[in-house]
Amino acid sequence: MTTARDLMTPNAVCVRASDTVNDAAQTMAREQLGSLPVCGEDNRLKGMLTDRDIVVKVLAEGKDPRAVHAGELAQGEAVTIGADDDVSEILQTMSQHRVRRLPVIDGHDLIGVVAQADVARAMPNPDTGVLVEALSHDY
Q1: Quick check: helix, strand or coil at residue 116?
Q2: Is 82 in contact with 4 (CB distance < 8 Å)?
Q3: Percent of the chain scored above 90 by pLDDT?
Q4: CA 8, 135, 40: angle at the middle one, nearest 5?
């Protein structure tokens, strides 16, 4: 059984909720990432921040990325997957919540991120099409 732990990119880079969006964007550029987990000062996951969030919720609204904090964009409860959950659970969670990346949690600790591409590589071709179809609408 292939699990999230098997598929994930380990050692996820986390931006602090208190960091500015500008800091987060610089981290994204340096690490060549399109999203970052947002962690509180208690190291608990608060949400995800995407490059799209920065463009739509900060830049397009004329806000200063040096004045907006990453935690302000991490609204609601983060959608996660357990480290030992299998590919079918990952697929179901991604499809249900229409997300392309899932933080992987072991207990309360963020241990990695599993992306749509990671799942697609692990699935037979027909199932891959189902995943891409489910995540491609309304973007």
Answers
A1: helix
A2: yes
A3: 52
A4: 50
C-alpha 101/C-alpha 80 separation (Å) is 9
72 membership: H or E segment, kind and range: helix 70-73
Greatest alpha-carbon span in the chain: 47
Distance in angstroms between the alpha carbons of the first and the last residue of the chain = 31
Contact between 51 and 22 under an 8 Å Cβ cutoff? The reply is: no
Identity of residue 41 = E
pLDDT tens digits for 30-76?
998 888 999 988 778 889 999 999 999 999 999 999 999 999 998 66
Q: Which residue has the tokens 């973007």?
A: 139
pTM: 0.79
